[in-house]
Design a protein that fits this description.
The protein is mainly α and 119 residues long. It contains four helices and no strands. It has a single domain, classed as Up-down Bundle (de novo design (two linked rop proteins)), CATH 1.20.1440.60.
Length: 119
């Protein structure tokens, strides 16, 4: 069976976000921004999983497009947490690199799906 890179990377990203959320809540006592990041950061993988069983190519593209929106929102929250000094530079750079990979993969999959008209 072929490896599903977007599925694996989005799950790993969600796990990192969940652990960052726990850290921000327990160590930094930050409860609002971290919750927003938790929601958007974990939604990416959930939407990728939903897209696996899409009813049509249009449904597949739609679900991945929403995942792309959630990834962009996550990018905003990560930037804000870093600029507000809740996340150190090393953690920020690492998470940001993972997020950029996800964004590139999602854009590529959506573009290819639109061009080919199939999943």
């Amino acid at each position: 069976m072929k490896e599903n890179i977007i599925k694996n990377k989005s799950f790993a990203f969600a796990l990192r976000i969940a652990k960052l959320f726990q850290y921000l809540q327990t160590e930094k006592k930050e409860f609002v921004l971290s919750k927003q990041l938790l929601r958007s950061g974990t939604a990416i993988g959930a939407l990728v999983r939903e897209a696996e069983n899409a009813e049509s190519n249009a449904d597949f593209i739609h679900k991945l497009s929403i995942a792309l929106k959630e990834a962009n929102e996550s990018d905003y929250w990560i930037d804000l947490l870093f600029q507000a000094d809740y996340v150190d530079e090393m953690a920020f750079n690492s998470i940001k690199a993972d997020l950029i990979q996800l964004l590139k993969l999602l854009v590529s999959i959506i573009k290819t799906s639109k061009e080919n008209g199939r999943r």
